[in-house]
Specification:
By secondary structure, this protein is α/β, with parallel strands linked by helices. It has one domain. Helix content is 30%, strand content 17%. The chain contains 4 helices and 7 strands, in the order αββββααββαβ. The strands form 2 sheets. Strands 1, 3, 5, 6 and 7 form a 5-stranded mixed sheet that branches. A two-stranded antiparallel ribbon has the order 2-4.
Length: 169
């Protein structure tokens, strides 16, 4: 029964993807461009920087609401993940990449333990109190840019984050 459900789910997504990618289809993927590079060199050595993780890999706490992978225009909502979260308390809800290895070890996609190790070793100054998980498949990213990103920026600033490590999904 599970195999049938998996096949039906996969087939539905294959059909939806074909519709999105067809010129003139019901929902062409939005072309949103960043016209300016938002790069700033760190003002201090890495060994003094506080680092946060941000992923579009669909990582979230098992206790949080999963991302809505069936939402027509994607799910641009945000999941806050405390830095002291054990890997076993995390899961991935995403349908647009193969995350089997990350399901076995979430550090593959969301290196929460590796970041803590870098802080312990003095490679980085510290780990932000909060990390952020998002769903990467959002055909029209305008809502992400308008709503989600400013929330992350404000929270990171409030926690004195110097560097954000991004992992794509």
């Amino acid at each position: 029964m599970t195999e049938l459900l998996d096949w039906e789910f996969t087939e539905k997504w294959r059909q939806r993807w074909a519709e999105w990618m067809t010129p003139g289809g019901h929902g062409a993927i939005a072309d949103v461009r960043n016209e300016s590079l938002a790069w700033t060199a760190p003002g201090k050595p890495l060994s003094e920087c506080t680092v946060a993780l941000v992923t579009t890999g669909g990582v979230h706490l098992r206790t949080q609401e999963p991302f809505d992978v069936m939402k027509e225009d994607g799910d641009w909502s945000l999941r806050e993940i405390p830095a002291d979260t054990p890997p076993g308390a995390l899961m991935i809800t995403h349908t647009h990449y193969n995350h089997l290895d990350a399901d076995r070890d979430v550090n593959v996609m969301f290196p929460i333990e590796r970041l803590a190790e870098l802080a312990e070793e003095g490679v980085i100054g510290g780990v932000a109190r909060t990390h952020f998980g998002m769903m990467g498949w959002v055909p029209d990213p305008r809502a992400t840019v308008r709503d989600t990103v400013p929330t992350i920026v404000a929270r990171a600033r409030s926690e004195n984050v110097d560097i954000v490590l991004l992992t794509p999904g």
